[in-house]
Design a protein that fits this description.
By secondary structure, the chain is mainly alpha-helical. The protein is 75% helix and 2% strand. One of its GO terms (molecular function) is transmembrane transporter activity.
């Protein structure tokens, strides 16, 4: 039973990490219908920048903010300069963002090299926490990661569902021409949304580099997981992203613990099953 509960906690930690990565993706891909295959590269960039900030200042929250802002800036430039020109043309967006992802990955490989980096954490987070019911220790950063994901999820839901900006974003997705007729600059709004998605991706990169590590290839890993999470949970749904991340995170950890040979099969089996039963995702809205 102790082993099962530890595996479950590991699954929740992985789910929190996947949600942080997918939360920005669900904004860009789910709400804007922009196919940004450079999302993983933004996450990796945020992790690298966060590492440099933490090494220079020694302040972990500042590293999270710095990594997020760097990814937000690059994301806004990508949307304004390239992807925004192909709005509504998914094929060109996909090809352009794949090219950007490869270019960014190569530039980061050239600058930071092919070694693995881990962001230094405060002493309060570097140790372990003794779980009262299980009587075993567990990494404090993993528990903080779960709490951080919950806070981000609530804040993102409030922005989308309860604020004027969220209403404008949702209106722009549903009827862009009507929003433009009302005097709103849809292109600028989408740049802001892209920057917000980049901010979340960059912050997720720093947190991932703190709890685990980052290296070349981390961008592809989290891009794939974000795609699966958004597809399973439903495009444009923050709750769906949380549910999808929970299912995928737990499935991966249970698979690694109890059926390591077939662990990866569970993830894609869930995705295939969801697509067969609910093509729009578990909490996604039907296009009909």
């Amino acid at each position: 039973m102790t082993f099962f509960l530890i595996v479950t906690l590991n699954g929740l930690t992985l789910a929190a990490l996947y949600f942080l990565a997918a939360s920005g993706f669900t904004l860009i891909f789910g709400l804007m219908r922009t196919v940004n295959m450079a999302h993983g590269a933004l996450l990796l960039l945020g992790g690298y920048v966060g590492f440099e900030v933490a090494k220079t200042t020694g302040i972990w929250p500042l590293a999270i903010l710095g990594g997020g802002l760097a990814a937000a800036l690059v994301g806004a430039i990508i949307q304004f300069g390239i992807l925004g020109r192909f709005q509504g043309d998914e094929l060109r967006q996909t090809l352009a963002s794949i090219a950007l992802s490869i270019i960014m990955a190569d530039l980061m490989l050239w600058f930071w090299g092919g070694i693995t980096y881990q962001v230094a954490m405060p002493d309060a987070l570097a140790g372990g926490f003794r779980l009262p019911l299980l009587g075993v220790g567990y990494a404090t950063i993993r528990l903080v990661l779960i709490a951080f994901a919950i806070v981000v999820g609530i804040a993102l839901w409030l922005v989308i569902a309860k604020t004027r900006l969220g209403a404008i974003i949702r209106a722009g997705v549903d009827d862009r021409e009507m929003l433009r007729a009302l005097g709103f600059d849809v292109a600028k709004i989408f740049v802001v949304v892209f920057a917000l998605g980049g901010l979340l991706a960059g912050m997720a990169g720093v947190v991932a580099a703190s709890a685990l590590s980052i290296s070349p290839g981390t961008d592809l890993q989290f891009l794939l997981s974000s795609l699966v999470v958004v597809i399973v949970g439903g495009m444009g749904s923050v709750g769906g992203a949380a549910l999808g991340a929970l299912l995928i995170g737990l499935a991966e950890q249970y698979g690694l613990a109890y059926a390591p040979t077939y662990g990866v099969v569970f993830t894609f089996a869930i995705m295939v099953l969801v697509l067969a039963v609910r093509p729009q995702g578990l909490l996604g809205r039907s296009e009909a």
